[in-house]
Amino acid sequence: MINGDAVSERTAPIGRFDICMSPREAANWNSQRKMILQNQLVVPRMGDVTRFFLLLVWVSTAIAQTTIQFATVSQDIVEKRLGAYVSKNDQREPAVRQIFEDAGCAGERLTEQRVKGLKAPNLICTLPGATEVVIVVGAHFDLVEAGDGVIDNWSGASLLPSLYQGIEGVQRRHTFRFVAFSGEEKGQLGSKAYVRELGNTHEQVIAMVNMDTLGLAEAEVWVNHADSKLVQLMELTAAVVKLPVSGMNVDQVGTTDSEPFREKKIPAITIHSLTSATLPILHSPKDRIAAVRKDEYFRTYRLVLAYLAVLDQKLD
Ligand SMILES: [Zn+2]
Questions:
Q1: 64 alpha carbon to ligand 1 midpoint, in Å?
Q2: Where are the domains of the chain?
Q3: pLDDT tens for residues 152-168?
Q4: Where residue 216 falls among pLDDT bands split at 50, 70, 90?
Q5: CATH number for the segment(s) 74-314
Q6: Which residues contact 295 (CB under 8 A, 6 or more apart)?
Q7: What is the distance in A from the centroid of ligand 1 to the CA of 153?
């Protein structure tokens, strides 16, 4: 796919990666059309489990020479944060706050946004960049109190601070807002409130990256509810950092925090990990930390982190 020696990846002592795409490699990429397969997650009915492939999306992305930089936190830390879940809704927001503060997002950078009808606010960690154009990275922290809500969605919420840390030390063109949303399970109340408030601030949000339900498998994208350019850039990222990603449409499963953004015509993408085999874990007593596949989860972290660095470079 991509010529091995054209991609240079070096690990600095602090765990920083440089990923370069040479002009030759970029030309290779442009000359190839990579397919992403969209799978449709079909909710089984009457014991009938069906999986089928939908359509193929042709991807060709124009790439100039690009260097992206990011610094990964260790798998130990990512897993420790995953393990810091609490199982009661009223304790979740303080628990996310604690991890943000541990990761260095505190003081003026960490703000709360009240959500009408809910006790728990949205929690927003802002990482300034060279411009005030914003990329939102979101994940809800609330849960259905059947299991521990680790998969859905502590897996996403507890990753936000590690993503913040991963790009905090590099130059950025965009301002990033890492938003831990309240009330997703009550009808995306937190993300709806966030989008509504954008109407007052007139802040320019050029992309929203949503994480919901990670760690059941390698990273997956809800392709037919995602902006096509954001999907292409995800493919590019996965190819460059050599991490797996696939398409899995979950239209029949439910909805999530990217949808209020899409309704406002803000390009959005949702990353998840659902498969028909793991679907029964959602909103059930089986949603416990034992259900997380640790290596897949850490690879998802690295993929999303690299993706944010790519978006920062490639979006205008
Ligand atoms: Zn969820």
A1: 36
A2: 74-314
A3: 999 999 999 999 999 99
A4: very high
A5: 3.40.630.10
A6: none
A7: 5
